[in-house]
Amino acid sequence: MKDSQYVQYGCGFCAPSNWRNFDASLTLKYEKLPVLGKLYKKNVQRFPANVEVGNIVKGLPVPENSCRLAYCSHVLEHLSLHDCQKAIRNTYRILESGGLFRFVLPDLEYYIKQYTEDSTPGAAQNFMQGTILGRKEKPRSINTVLFEWLRTSAHLWMWDYKALKQELESAGFTDVRRAAFGDSSESEFGAVEAENRWENCLGIECRKP
Predict the structure, then answer these.
(1) Which of 46, 115, 123, 200 has its CA 20 to 30 Å from the CA of residue 17?
(2) Where are the domains of the chain?
(3) Which of 43-57, 138-152, 167-181 has the lowest mean pLDDT?
(4) Contact call for residues 57 and 83 (beta carbons, < 8 A)
(5) Nearest 5°: phi and psi at 199?
(6) End-to-end alpha-carbon separation of the chain, Å?
């Protein structure tokens, strides 16, 4: 839906028809290749046909001031600090005045609390695994080094509410607030939100003035 006022990026396989859905996955790029894309079967499940290739850091092919709603789920933590700042600014750019940006991601404050309250020897390991910040092994072969370079599952920068509020306001957003699953005044967000993606996570909603 090229003229949709609702834009979701990092959508994965969640691609409601009334939203314009983007993902930067290499797998999606391969699936979109003429002829060869139909033969590419890395995943058992293929991306829905209406998912477009798009990278929020580089900027989505969406006109400025054209969207009423923007959404992403578990995307920003996979970006470096500077790339996340670019993503926030690019999201602001495509929203119309009064438009809402809503997102959810892992809550660093939650994991710190879990760690500080855990007196067992496994506390540090649980923290590193839960935040996906550590590596059990260092990649040594050319193949594993290449895989580490290409993969997007690692968390590159973790956030708490205070830090994200500052970044959002620096980009121009107002009315920044903590959000909970399903609490938006805009019912259209219900098409892209999944409750299990919000459990023990940080949700935020803000507005472009």
Answers:
(1) 200
(2) 6-105+156-207
(3) 138-152
(4) yes
(5) -65, 125
(6) 26
Q: Measured at the alpha carbon of residue 101, what is the angle toward residues 7 and 108, in degrees to the nearest 5?
A: 115
pLDDT tens-digit map of 121-167: 999 999 999 998 877 776 666 554 444 444 557 899 999 999 999 99
This prediction has a pTM of 0.90
Residue 94 belongs to what H/E stretch? helix 81-94
**Around Cβ 143, how many Cβ atoms within 10 Å?**
9
* Interatomic CA distance for residues 55 and 155, integer angstroms: 17
Residue 89: strand, helix, or coil:
helix
Output Rg (C-alpha) for the chain, integer angstroms. Answer: 18
- How is domain 6-105+156-207 classified at the architecture level of CATH? 3-Layer(aba) Sandwich (3.40)
